[in-house]
Predict the structure.
Amino acid sequence: MIAKIVCYALNGLEGVPVEVETDVNRGIPAYEMVGLPDTSVKESKERVRSALKNSGLLFPMNKITINFAPADIRKEGASFDLAVAVSLLKASEQLVGAETDGTVFLGELALNGDLRPISGLLPILISAKGHGFSRFIVPAGNAREASFLGGAEIYPAASLGEVVRHLLGVQPIPPLQTQIFVPHASKKQGGADLKYVKGQPVARRALEIAVAGGHNLLLVGPPGTGKTMLARCLPTVMPDLTFEEALEITKIHSVAGTLGEEGIVTERPFRTPHHTATVVAMCGGGNRVVRPGEISLAHGGVLFLDELPEYMRSALEAMRQPLEDGKITVSRASGTITFPARFMLCASMNPCPCGNYGSADRVCTCTPAEIRRYRRKVSGPLLDRIDLQVEVDSVAYDDLSVSGKQESSAAVKERVDMARCIQRSRFEGTRVTVNAEMGEHEMEAYCALNRESDEILRAAFEKMQLSARARSRIIKVARTIADLAASEDILPAHVFEAVSYRIYDKLG
Amino acid sequence: MEYSRAEQAIIWLCMSTPFEDGVRAALLRAAGDPARLIPDFEKICAAVIGSPQNRVYKSDRTSREKEAEVCLRALEKLGCFAVTAASSDYPAALQHAFRPPVVLYGMGNRALLRERKFCIVGSRILPPWAEKTGKAVAEELTERFCIVTGFAEGGDSAAIAGALPSGRLICVLPTGIDGCYPASHAGLKREVAAKGLLLTEYPPHTGVQKFSFHARNRLLAGLAEGVLVLAAGAKSGTLLTANCALDYGREVFALPHNVGAAQGVGCNELIKKGAYLCTGAEDIFAAFGMQPRARSAPKLSEGEVRVLAVLNGEGELHAALIAEKAGMPVYEAQSYLSSLELKGLAVKAGGNRYAPLSQ
């Protein structure tokens, strides 16, 4: 008898339906798998055999042929185990009367018959729902992740035995209750909060502007002055995740297998790749299965690059296009996959190799040539994409010990939310969501400068020898500053402040 | 470029013969009229060098004339000219310098040699305010002086930046006229050659050597009527220029630095020893008995006036403290500070600190 069971393979962030066809014939006992299965899929043979035996079920001693259709895409991973086992049971007539049509079976088997959670479940469920499937059997370990998908019957099973009893109607599994998404359900950022950042009035303000307008941020300062701490506060002042955003981020993290206990990403990601990260680590890739890179894992959140000049040049340059487009297209022999990558870039660096350049109390021992060489490690085009460049103060001991009241993240977030609200209503109906994403067309419409402001910018242009790109960056930042002040027009004061955050152009 | 016979002879002596500077000067003295050098070289040499084993000259008169021709063509090919001790526009002031060079190779606007000259120098690493002040002073001084400076980074670059737009700028190189040190200034070199004047005492194709900077510094002091030192550490090479200037009887000016600032110890030392304390171009004009041109004060808003008052009262200060003293939020103070910066009244000193600039 032939049995057909549906399961799913993963291609990037998309699920692809795969039919597992099993034929059990009389003949010399054999077990063949066809349809381009990978080694890890072929290994399921042994797992399925043991799982069946240990669940009190029979492994047919006949000629067994298993086919994965469509046969032209490569199947990888252990998520087909459950489907193989169920189809085998059905073909060997151990599931008589069970309704398996229209049900998607997902899960990896342990030798004792337990079901292990798989990565990439949520993207599979979302794709499968789009393909018209509405009944799923998933590992109990993935239950939380799956429970955010509404409008589908999802049955979490802990073992193969449970699945069989459910299918036979002996002991039905109750379907999962759809959960309501609550942002910030759990705090992961190690309790980072702006109220713990001492001093740094200038950097704080820049942080607020950066988040309000979605601008990228560069923190320049001597080592040990709290650049990392400031950066860690970024997610705490960013607007709460909406459910759609959370789903999209969860999809990426699910595919990468970095999803935590709660099954959905409730906080904006904060990724800090080490500076040895390669282009593939940054942008995504892989041998056969293409996995998302750091910039995709930071989607919707913050990508923090500590000690920017130490990163591999190629890895930094590869980020330039995603910074503009908000997505990355990875091309491999097996296909081309596009991952979303709309993140906020926050980078930190020392002002010079010794770190004391511009310090009040310590002497910089670097020669001008050394400083130039150090700064040249970060390319101009990348720096041009960083709208705000601020210096972080070296903190005196007195500032550290004083328990002066510092504004908390919540208070800053309120102002940020206000500014974002203004931007939302401004860009209603366009693809732009924040000021930093404005194109020429939007800038013309919303960033008209009055004569006075225009003259200031012209003067700044000549004095600081700014690039044309820097000009539009300054205007965008000035727009955000005006939004924070709830001002309809961009006033000269806003332009001046925006100019003061271009220290790199002056240091150059 | 047309050269007289005397000039040709000197150029030949400097570019084709292997003698040291002192020997060349002695040969010139012995010749009396430099034009005699080429025809009577054997005789003059015999008188100066004496002992037969030192007689390195082997050429006869015709080949010497040919060599001179080759030298002139080489100069022309490089697009430069030579100013010799026999030239009418050879800077007379250089006579006071130690071992005045017999030939100066130049590229650019030769007429600048006849102008009054003032030298601005500073160490390669200097505080931002000193750099800005140096630039502003250089810019203002170009009304009356041609600015003389080296070609290094830091102080020299500040002076170049101030004087280059007006074209009244002489840069003295530590290499041959075709060399460039530091190499990153190649673009700047072309600009100076186009607008101002490049000078060097070294023949073409001479690379940079350890002593060339010190030797160059004596020319800086020798060429100018006065020297302003923007910044100098305790053992800075810049101090050498100042000391040469004192030896040659030039006026020496120095910017005052904070007590204990490593980059300004040398400047403060100079002031202690009697150099003029200089805070702006008007101090230099006053020392030379000149009237500075009156400038209109820039228009300032009420907030800018408040911030500037704090800055002028306190000196270099962190933006947050400025804001606190002026009674406004930091971001507001920042916007005023950056507007003051554009107006040339303040300068960012690094680490979010700002320093006032004298007007």
